[in-house]
């Protein structure tokens, strides 16, 4: 009972330990894995990233037209595709995608 009262008084007298979101937005830490980004201008559509992706989140086609698509909800942000891309056209952004992405 004494411990309970001591905890109640201590918690009532100090500031909250949680962040007052959204007034104070979350700032991601450096190297955080937020979402995968892609540069279509440097991509050669070699499909190495598609072959290395463990979840099948990437689809690359060359014919009839060149395309690179990502299923964001299938991506586990492992970074394998970034490691193997010969053109460095994939990178990890530290910010998470918004709900509408
Ligand atoms: S590995 Fe790189 S260059 Fe090749 S298809 Fe993927 S993103 Fe494009
Ligand atoms: S980060 Fe991993 S899971 Fe996501 S697309 Fe690249 S290889 Fe696939």
Description:
22% of the residues lie in helices and 16% in strands. It has 3 helices and 4 strands, in the order αβαββαβ. It has helices at residues 2-13, 48-52, 80-84, and strands spanning 35-38, 58-61, 67-70, 90-93. Strands 1-4 form a two-stranded antiparallel sheet. A two-stranded antiparallel ribbon has the order 2-3. It is elongated, with a radius of gyration of 22 Å. The termini are far apart. The model has no long low-confidence stretch (mean pLDDT 92). One iron/sulfur cluster is lined by residues 43-49, 60, 68, 85-87, 89-90. The site of one iron/sulfur cluster (SF4) has 15 residues, from α3.
Spans of at least 5 consecutive residues with low confidence: none
Largest sheet: 2 strands, antiparallel
Q: So how many helices?
A: 3
DSSP summary, beta strand count? 4
- Provide the β-strand percentage band: 15-25%
In N-to-C order, the SSE pattern is HEHEEHE
Radius of gyration: 22 Å
Ligands in the structure?
A: iron/sulfur cluster
Q: How would you write the strand order of the largest sheet?
A: 1-4
Share of helical residues: 10-25%
Q: Shape, please?
A: elongated
Structural classification: alpha+beta
Mean pLDDT score: 92
Q: Please give the alpha-carbon distance between the first and last residues.
A: 50 Å
